[in-house]
Amino acid sequence: GENVEQHPSTLSVQEGDSAVIKCTYSDSASNYFPWYKQELGKRPQLIIDIRSNVGEKKDQRIAVTLNKTAKHFSLHITETQPEDSAVYFCAAANAGGTSYGKLTFGQGTILTVHP
Amino acid sequence: GAVVSQHPSRVICKSGTSVKIECRSLDFQATTMFWYRQFPKQSLMLMATSNEGSKATYEQGVEKDKFLINHASLTLSTLTVTSAHPEDSSFYICSAMRPGAVAFFGQGTRLTVV
């Protein structure tokens, strides 16, 4: 099955700095890579996703890059703000296979943005 | 956007009793829903895949007789924790995939077994 590794486990930055979280996956059949933000005791919220037919996607301060050859993808947050502090999870799925939509999550990154 | 609703958000039960958690997709039909378990400060671990009209598919190590899943309609899946024990205390969360491979999560259920 799929295995997703996420690093770092904790990340502390100053407000205004950039934050980068990296994930690797093992199953070359995976073609959908979402990123979720989870605040304590709440549901994960989708913040951005990318499919295997593109290498980069950007939405305001958030961007995701994908390297299919190396099987890794990264989340980039620029101009970080204290409200960006949360746990971030990457995930991978095969959106067209028999396990449609079955997400495998990374271990999570606790991001702390200091004012 | 798509909304997935999960109830209850919190439940406290006595050891040995059963608890049912509901997961509803409110504005789209979900032939497949997923149930996850999350321990404090850990990631989401997939427990089972709920398939409408057929048996659920359980991940390795998950007891199917303990975690009963029923997906009777295109908008509702239920997870029943049977004969709950303190070690079953956890955050349970469901998700449903909207066509196009976008997963939306329910609010989660904090189960405490005393």
List the main descriptive attributes of the protein structure presented here.
heterodimer; A: 115 residues; mainly beta; six-stranded mixed sheet; five-stranded antiparallel sheet; 11 strands; 0% helix; B: 114 residues; seven-stranded mixed sheet
Oligomer: heterodimer
What is the radius of gyration of chain A?
Answer: 14 Å
Quote the distance from N terminus to C terminus of chain A.
Answer: 41 Å
**Hey, roughly how much beta strand do the residues of chain B contain?**
over 45%
Low-confidence stretches of chain A: none
Largest sheet of chain B: 7 strands, mixed
* Alpha carbon gyration radius of chain B: 13 Å
**Helix share of residues of chain A?**
under 10%
Q: Give the H and E element order of chain B.
A: EEEEEEEEEEE
Itemize the secondary structure elements and their pairings.
The complex is a heterodimer of chains A (115) and B (114).
Chain A: E1 4-7, E2 10-14, E3 19-25, E4 32-38, E5 45-51, E6 56-59, E7 62-67, E8 72-77, E9 86-92, E10 104-105, E11 109-114
Parallel strand pairs in A: 2-11
Antiparallel strand pairs in A: 1-3, 3-8, 4-5, 4-9, 6-7, 7-8, 9-10, 9-11
Chain B: E1 4-7, E2 10-13, E3 19-25, E4 32-38, E5 44-51, E6 57-58, E7 67-73, E8 76-81, E9 90-98, E10 102-105, E11 109-113
Parallel strand pairs in B: 2-11
Antiparallel strand pairs in B: 1-3, 3-8, 4-5, 4-9, 5-6, 7-8, 9-10, 9-11
Characterization of this structure:
The complex is a heterodimer of chains A (115) and B (114). Helices cover 0% and strands 53% of the residues of chain A. Chain A is an all-beta fold and 115 residues long. Chain A is globular, with a radius of gyration of 14 Å. In chain A, 36% of the residues are buried. The model of chain A has no long low-confidence stretch (mean pLDDT 93). Chain B is mostly beta strands. Chain B is 0% helix and 55% strand. Chain B is built from no helices and eleven strands. In chain B, strands 2, 4, 5, 6, 9, 10 and 11 form a seven-stranded mixed beta sheet that branches. Chains A and B meet through β4, β5 and β10 of A and β5, β9 and β10 of B.
